[in-house]
Design goal:
The structure is a homotetramer. By secondary structure, chain A is an alpha/beta fold. The first copy, chain A, is 36% helix and 19% strand. The first copy, chain A, has a 6-stranded parallel sheet with strand order 6-5-4-7-8-9, sandwiched between helices. In chain A, β5, α7 and β6 form a beta-alpha-beta unit. In chain A, α6 runs parallel beside α11. Chains A and B meet through α1, α7, α9 and α10 of A and α1, α7, α9 and α10 of B.
Chain lengths: 285, 285, 285, 285
């Protein structure tokens, strides 16, 4: 018989150490309903600790709190580009109702107003392809052309602003209301996700980020993909549900619900009001 | 003014070449409703070409076809482990209705019966952590303990088969009915996704795979995450909707629908019946 | 006893199949000294098959051949930027002899003259950081400032052309003699390597590349890192030893020798003359 | 004219902030010759700060110090497997002099004796393929068979202990003298590198590691590849030069020298004596 991997001699100490930390945090959670910032893991906070309310955690109907270090927290606005929420952009060309994706502009703007000037980092992402489409899979471009009835990624729609989903085009850039300001970070990515094909790993590491507060469009596509990637790597992720939207309302609702399954399988869900209250309560400015 | 990236001198030839291939495929699609196997990209088929019907493509209500090379196609059964569909496994301990995830065992078995003995590859995945939990993020373990009311990843539930979601435990292994047979492949992964933290890149490359036919559990979590990762890299992905299940039926339905948005934002959707018909029709055995 | 991974029931068929393909290729190699293009794996060639001589393979003193498909081959010119081979660039500022890195410009130019107009792909890479240095690790920037005696990555040296190793600066761009032309590809990367933090995965996949012919600077740093990453993923890599250079000649020599160890632990080594002969002999234009 | 990426409106604040931190650290380095632990980035130490001497930094002939947090430091022993340093293993079968790779066993053992019982983490890696060779690139297996004159990866050499470089085989496991003990970590990897195809990302993140002290075999292959990957991601890497070895002494020397170029292009170099002194001086037990 072949035994492929045996760990008899060295595995339980590492496991027991982690499980004892988990047990401590679990006992604390029962008392406080709070996922406390794990100092044992990350060290003392670099900024200021604050906590925000999250919903339907651990069970639907319950309320819990996530504590985070302001200087290790990033507010991420995903793909708030004209292509996804503006006129003559990609989503508009495909015929979807723009209000579904554009409705989150105002709440995201409120969050920007709150976090700008604090030590919370702001990261923007943009989906788009090189002008030579070298990083665009053939099937992705083909499908977009079919659904766009002849006008897909890399093409210029009639009356459009530029080539769809192509870097450097006006339609590809971030919508004016949410445009990055000095000191914010921008990640360009070629896919729905970002890890594995961009420098987002490095940026989060260079900034010392442990907690990601997520927003953007579309909920079930790019936002969820990035949330999944980050969650798999152990980042604490919280989606602000009013700061996101999808091309289909039912998909939006399920994308939000899906996060909450299994006690928070992809992290937690909150909204801009609660995040703003938490940040303001911390007096970070 | 800083111009960060300028491509004026060399970008359009690559773009035009790709777009002309896309245009050709688009014209063919209009005639044939088929995503033909792109020989210009992959070379002549290594096995036999065959095509299967996919639903709601490009628009809801439409039917289309995906053509694939049998020897470059993999049927992937994601996380069909006791922990996700069997008694005393992880999902059972969390209190979900097992029939939601176990109902896909029979259709997957039918697909196995059909593809075994052909040159279509079979790949299984298993989610699970090292016995020392070294690859388990603290927050993942903590959340599982909270939702499991004290019994989470790495713990042994009362009357359980072993530590939950831990490699090597009986509950972690693939359910008996769908157990791998000689010549099939198994990818162990620590997260919901697999790319970036397993050798799945290498396996797909070593096998020359271009098309993935996906099944498994749970639809909105692991199946969708792997589908997203693969789709971002240009793999052609088709989910068999009866060969998958989720802990919540609404989330299952939206996960399926979400794939079909934007002309197939994550690929296509079909079912076991249509896949089996396609494979049988190709006389691959 | 815990058995972590057991494969008794399904592992040998996959292994035996691969090993029989390896055995065939091994028998062919003994006859022909050639690593033949594996049609069983990649399918029929898309372009034209041709073979080039490589040195010291399998043993030092031996000669072998690598057969490749022109349309699946990419010639990669790594980091031929002013920062690495031109006046007032990064390497110049650190005080290294520019002739060590600039001497490969002419042979790379010869290769360009040969492959341009064929279906062999040309890929350029550039190392550099975002203007906000968000993707530059703190220790990398610090070390560069120390060795540059106060002038490091992100700084403008006296009499310099722009900020060192920063995207968009004149010094960061590709040297005039080797500037990309229409239809060539450019990968921007923040590290010495490229896989994992750029879209190079997608580009190689979209182009269907199986074989990489490598050149550029510096041999032991960026060229070797990319070669290692690609080799680990199964790409066939061949370094053209006169088309590369390092800041230290001994390191250059060892970097070349290191590839040849263990029968070609990172691939193979050849030179521009042999590659040009091979390409010209194939009449690809 | 297409301007692909313009950052005029938001890029300098992030850059200036990083450069001011770099400037501070540079001034401190000039005074102290020490790369101090960057508390601004990582937070207060979780364990105890200590510093070790590194050689030829920033210039050849100079001495510098790296300060690290014991609880955020990992000592990594790379591929100390029978296959690379023991009788009838892979390296032995290829005909290399085993003393070149086995000579580092004793110094690594001394380091183990010193760090075991402290809060410095110990991580072992093992290179090896699944028993079905699914993660072994065809060209890698073929080359090994050629150099092994018919006996390569996946084969059992005459008088051998098992299949070469295959997980689960005796020859593949870690050599007895350096076998992991309780509470240590083991990363299995299919390539020379580990990032991108293993869970090493997660393990380092879960352990909060910032500094890697590296050892193992072979210097120019697996050790260097992992060092490059980690360095690109911003980990502080220090190779202990007597705790490593290569199949060719010249390659070993150049691999060590290469790290020191450009002020430490891949990190720093020290030895077991200095690391042991540093750890003992910190009274961590």
């Amino acid at each position: 018989m072949s035994k492929i991997r045996t760990y008899e001699r060295f595995y339980s100490a590492g496991r027991d150490k982690l499980l004892s930390k988990v047990q401590e945090a679990y006992e604390r959670f029962k008392e406080t309903r709070t996922f406390e910032f794990p100092v044992w893991l990350y060290g003392q906070p670099v900024g200021k600790l604050f906590k925000m309310e999250v919903e339907d955690c651990p069970q639907f109907g319950d309320t819990a709190y996530v504590e985070m270090d302001s200087a290790r927290t990033a507010f991420v606005a995903i793909d708030m580009q004209t292509d996804f929420c503006g006129k003559s952009g990609y989503v508009d060309v495909m015929g979807y109702d723009l209000s579904l994706t554009a409705s989150c502009i105002a709440p995201i703007k409120s969050v920007f107003d709150t976090v700008r000037g604090t030590d919370i980092k702001v990261i923007h992402t943009r989906e788009g392809h090189e002008p030579d489409l070298s990083d665009a899979p053939f099937n992705k471009v083909l499908r977009s052309k079919i659904i766009g009835e002849g006008v897909g990624i890399g093409d210029i729609p009639e009356g459009g602003l530029g080539r769809l989903l192509v870097r450097g085009e006006t339609n590809w850039d971030i919508t004016e209301e949410l445009y990055p300001v000095e000191g914010e970070y921008v990640v360009d990515k070629a896919g729905k996700g970002a890890f594995g094909s961009s420098t987002i790993h490095m940026i989060l590491k260079n900034l010392g980020v442990t907690h990601l507060v997520l927003s953007g469009i579309t909920t079930d596509v790019c936002v969820h993909t990035i949330m999944r990637e980050a969650n798999d790597l152990g980042y604490w992720c919280i989606l602000l549900k009013d700061c996101t939207g999808a091309t289909d309302y039912g998909n939006y609702e399920s994308a939000v619900k899906s996060i909450k399954m299994q006690g928070g399988v992809f992290g937690n869900v909150s909204d801009s009001k609660r995040f703003i209250e938490a940040v303001e309560g911390a007096n970070l400015k």
